[in-house]
């Protein structure tokens, strides 16, 4: 039996079906190997902390014109006591590239050391690369405790 | 050759043709001309890579890749284990020198137009190796789990995460979750000691095979001078003549590594804490400085595009163009260079130097 020069031309209908089934079967098995591996790579989502409020500090702990990083759920947040003595709270995660911001007592502003971003005490991005304002939290002073609450 | 080694060679030759090993070694010739010095940097990078593999294996004996143990295990290595400080410092210094020599090698190949036909794929495999080396640098940087590394990883992975469509997926893949945590450390450890070494070995084999197959490139200027009879065509066998010269360089590098490690042992810094602010004056390793500084200058929005996204797109596009240079520089050929591409190279080096300097200021 001679081999046809153009393999496509000489293929008989039966042979074509064998090729399709063989190729399809191979492709399906490759997908069935890769799919679990891809799903394995992505870890299961961790449920967000449901607590909407946290005790960030004791009121006496913070002097005027200082800031403190505290843990709010799984993320850092920033409590600021302004020069006038009022409390403000924000997320401490910079909206630019995720660094943790700090209060600058010399500027009376919130500063990110990574790429020199600045926010005012309303959380607004006022200078540098940050594209969005910081999320602002509500603050209540309950006796000794400064309680920070996510806005509804 | 002594009688014994001659005998051993004959024994091997009878079994699988050891003569081919000799032929293989004899095949490679090093052209001698005024730019021959640049031929040393590829071998130097390879040597430093081998130093990395060996010291890396030694570090693995004590290192523990979990957020509670990583910092302490490195600290223990540096203070308690005999010569631990030396092994770790040599690993860090050698990593930095390797990145430097890899860049020198890449730019010398670029300016001497060694990427031109038929060496396009040698260039592409080399560029991929350069990216892998930077991946080694980025993933290894996190492993001591100190503050600087923690924020560098946050920023670096966040940049990857800001890519459209695939960004979110890619970020979770890199971090092993939404945030930089112990899961990230475990992953980076896996990348650093398994995935990247595997990829690097395969690419390195291809890269070296291509170099062996195609021989060393002679710069167009020298090629022309030889063709016009202005310069004699000179060369030297790679084995053993050039290799011995290579080895003098490697020996010197080893001395330099020991001296650097002893005089400037690598800092460990403070243990990473996800609940402290990024420290003032934070900046990445020197080879990422030019990108870091660019990100600082980019405003929040450029027209309607996020500044950071523009930066990432810019650098990705530039990297792609750089990889594709052999296919774009169509005019370069025997004895011919392209002024535009030489100028582009000068611009790129200038940009990197100026922006790195601005970041250090």
Describe this structure in words.
By secondary structure, chain A is an alpha+beta fold. Chain A contains two helices and ten strands. Chain A has helices at residues 7-10, 13-41, and strands at 53-58, 66-72, 75-81, 87-91, 102-104, 109-112, 117-119, 125-127, 136-142, 145-149. In chain A, a hairpin with a 2-residue loop joins strand 9 and strand 10 (145-149). The N and C termini of chain A lie far apart (80 Å). The mean pLDDT of chain A is 89. Chain B has 361 residues and is mostly helical. In chain B, 69% of the residues lie in helices and 3% in strands. Chain B has helices at 3-16, 19-27, 40-60, 70-79, 84-111, 120-142, 147-161, 167-175, 182-214, 220-227, 238-263, 289-297, 307-323, 325-328, 339-360, and strands at residues 29-32, 234-237, 301-302, 305-306. In chain B, the strands form two sheets. Chain B has a two-stranded antiparallel ribbon with strand order 1-2. A two-stranded antiparallel sheet of chain B has the order 3-4. In chain B, a hairpin with a 2-residue loop joins strand 3 (301-302) and strand 4. Chain B is globular and about 65 Å long. The mean pLDDT of chain B is 93. Chain A binds chain B through residues 41-43, 45-46, 69-71, 74-76, 78, 92, 96-102, 112-116, 125, 128-132, and chain B through 151, 154-155, 158-159, 169, 172-173, 176-179, 183, 274-282, 292, 295-296, 298-301, 306-308.
């Amino acid at each position: 039996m001679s081999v046809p020069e153009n393999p496509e031309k000489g293929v008989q209908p039966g042979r074509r079906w064998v090729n399709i089934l063989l190729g399809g079967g191979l492709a399906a098995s490759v997908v069935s190997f890769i799919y679990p591996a891809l799903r394995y790579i992505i870890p299961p989502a961790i449920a967000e902390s449901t607590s909407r409020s946290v005790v960030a500090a004791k009121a006496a702990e913070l002097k005027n014109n200082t800031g403190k990083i505290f843990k709010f759920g799984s993320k850092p947040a920033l409590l600021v006591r302004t020069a006038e003595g009022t409390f403000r709270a924000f997320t401490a995660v910079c909206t630019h590239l995720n660094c943790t911001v700090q209060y600058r007592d010399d500027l009376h502003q919130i500063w990110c050391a990574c790429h020199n971003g600045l926010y005012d005490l309303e959380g607004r991005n006022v200078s540098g690369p940050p594209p969005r304002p910081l999320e602002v939290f509500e603050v209540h002073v309950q006796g000794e405790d400064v309680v920070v609450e996510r806005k509804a | 050759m002594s009688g014994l080694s001659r005998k051993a060679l004959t024994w091997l030759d009878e079994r699988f043709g050891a003569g081919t090993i000799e032929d293989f070694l004899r095949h490679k010739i090093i052209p001698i001309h005024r730019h021959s010095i640049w031929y040393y940097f590829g071998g130097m990078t390879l040597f430093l890579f081998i130093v990395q593999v060996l010291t890396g294996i030694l570090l693995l004996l004590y290192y523990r890749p979990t957020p509670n143990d990583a910092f302490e295990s490195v600290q223990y290595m540096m203070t308690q284990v005999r010569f631990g400080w030396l092994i770790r410092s040599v690993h860090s210094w050698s990593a930095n020198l390797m990145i430097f020599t890899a860049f020198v090698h890449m730019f010398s190949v670029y300016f001497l137009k060694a990427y031109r036909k038929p060496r396009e794929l040698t260039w592409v495999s080399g560029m991929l190796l350069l990216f892998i080396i930077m991946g080694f640098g980025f993933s290894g940087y996190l492993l001591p789990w100190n503050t600087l590394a923690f924020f560098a990883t946050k920023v670096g992975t966040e940049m990857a995460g800001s890519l459209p469509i695939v960004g979110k997926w890619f970020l979770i893949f890199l971090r092993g979750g939404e945030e930089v945590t112990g899961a990230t450390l475990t992953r980076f450890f896996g990348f650093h000691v398994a995935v990247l070494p595997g990829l690097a070995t395969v690419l390195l084999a291809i890269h070296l095979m291509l170099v062996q197959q195609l021989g060393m490139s002679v710069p167009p200027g020298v090629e022309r001078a030889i063709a016009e009879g202005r310069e004699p065509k000179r060369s030297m066998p790679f084995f053993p003549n050039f290799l011995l010269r290579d080895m003098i360089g490697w020996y010197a590098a080893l001395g330099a590594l020991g001296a650097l490690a002893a005089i400037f042992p690598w800092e460990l810094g403070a243990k990473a804490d996800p609940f402290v602010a990024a420290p003032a004056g934070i900046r990445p390793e020197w080879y990422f400085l030019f990108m870091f500084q660019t990100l600082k200058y980019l405003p929040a929005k450029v027209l309607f595009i996020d500044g950071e996204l523009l930066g990432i797109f810019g650098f990705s596009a530039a990297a792609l163009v750089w990889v594709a240079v052999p296919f774009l520089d169509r005019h370069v050929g025997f004895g011919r260079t392209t002024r535009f591409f030489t100028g582009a190279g000068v611009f790129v080096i200038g940009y990197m130097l100026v922006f790195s300097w601005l970041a250090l200021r």
